[in-house]
Amino acid sequence: MSRGIAARVGGEGAGGGMTGKGDRGARTLMWLMGAVLMLALGAAMIPEFRAAQEREREFRAAPVCASVPVEVSNCRWKQKFTVRSVDLHRGSRHKPPEAELLLPSRKPWHVTFRNTNPVLSGLEPHDKVVGLIWRGDVVDLRDTEGEQQETSDGPLDWPTDRLAGALACLSFGAAALVGSLWSALARGNRCHDAAGRVVRLHGIPLGITALLTLWLQSANDWPARSLPIIWGIVAALILANMVGFVVAALRGQIARAGGEA
């Protein structure tokens, strides 16, 4: 694996004359533009994460309604529904899974979901379900077997989603920015150019790790605090690996490994 990374880094620098320099300059510019974009996206997700975290705190602190409210209320209450229709939209990336529910008065209530499991995929017309309502939205749906699933309006998963997105964008963007600037300022020094490429390439596993950690946390129903802890441990290992490659690049070992490949 180490030899493969070295060959890739060394291979990026292959090519002679003005053509090789032009290609390297174009690649560095593309990485630099991508770094700025990802940093901007990551920075934009930080206030979204804080807002989502505050909304989750408000939901958890919301009391149970003493009676069914006649207006939108901050308290939580359970409402029985009958399933009218279910559309999972399998194969469509633009339409979320959805269901149309009926109140006892036969008034319809449209609900969307972020995924199809564990409740929505098993629902059929005329099934009985219970919805948890907060601030005028069905935030949670439960079937007769006790399984429950958050809707698109549910407040519980959004903070971790935004945190993972911010970690992915900021870590990738920071590594890409540092590595691109390092290569841009190398001024023909092949060792420093290779070191810059090492740094920015390690931004890829840093970003992917944040997304994979989110998937594992969601799939295993781990607490939200596990996401930054697990990502931090893996990120530290990736950074340690990066430092080793940077040292090898500065010694000229990466370029030699790339030339041998």
Descriptive account of the structure:
The chain is α+β, with helices and mostly antiparallel strands and 261 residues long. Helix content is 56%, strand content 15%. A six-stranded antiparallel beta sheet has the order 3-2-1-4-5-6, with no helix packed on it. α2 (17-61) runs antiparallel to α3 (158-184) and α3 runs antiparallel to α4 (190-219). The protein is elongated and about 75 Å long.
Describe the structure in brief.
The protein is α+β, with helices and mostly antiparallel strands. The chain has helices at 2-12, 17-61, 158-184, 190-219, 226-250, 253-260; strands at residues 76-87, 98-102, 108-112, 128-134, 137-142, 148-150. The chain is elongated and about 75 Å long.
* Shape label: elongated
N-C termini distance: 13 Å
Nearest-integer average pLDDT: 87
Q: Please mark out the parts with pLDDT under 50 across 5 or more consecutive residues, or reply none.
A: 1-5, 13-18, 256-261
Strand order of the largest sheet: 3-2-1-4-5-6
Helix content: 55-70%
Sheet bearing the most strands, described? 6 strands, antiparallel
Percent of residues in beta strands? 5-15%
- SSE class: alpha+beta
Order of helices and strands, N to C?
A: HHEEEEEEHHHH
Cα-atom radius of gyration:
25 Å
Number of strands: 6
Number of helices: 6
